[in-house]
Design goal:
The protein is α+β, with helices and mostly antiparallel strands. The protein is built from 1 helix and 10 strands, in the order ββαββββββββ. The protein is globular. Strands 3, 7, 8, 9 and 10 form a 5-stranded mixed beta sheet that branches. Strands 4-5-6 form a 3-stranded antiparallel beta sheet, with helices on one face.
Length: 117
């Protein structure tokens, strides 16, 4: 059975245990879940990736970002195993912005300004 992509979180499923690619596919699913479930990010207006990120750090990428974040506006950058991984949000996802103490929702026009928590 070929892998099927979940329309909400982008998870792949449909493998059977032992099928070629099962382990890598499951690893990708678990990393995605760890990055986007209970989403909280450090910042959403940092245009340059931090010089010394820590595994687990997450950011919303603003317009005009530079370096490895260039061209990834509104995506979620998650530091996993020493590299940045990117996740495209879906309409309705919620995110706590730590440095602003607001809850933001992803809409067709991008991330909302947020509501103070």
């Amino acid at each position: 059975m070929p892998a099927i992509t979940d329309p909400n979180l982008g998870l792949n499923y449909g493998w059977t245990l032992g099928e070629s690619g099962w382990g890598a596919g499951m690893d990708a699913n678990l990393k995605r879940l760890g990055a986007v479930v209970s989403l909280s990010v450090k910042d959403r207006d940092l245009a340059t990736p931090p010089a010394s990120p820590v595994n687990g750090d997450r950011y919303l990428i603003p317009a005009g970002a530079t370096g490895v974040w260039s061209g990834k506006t509104d995506q979620i950058a998650a530091r996993i195993a020493g590299v940045w991984e990117y996740h495209i949000p879906k309409i309705g996802w919620l995110c706590f912005i730590e440095d602003e103490a607001v809850l933001s929702a992803y809409k067709t026009t991008g991330w909302s300004p947020g509501i103070a928590i």
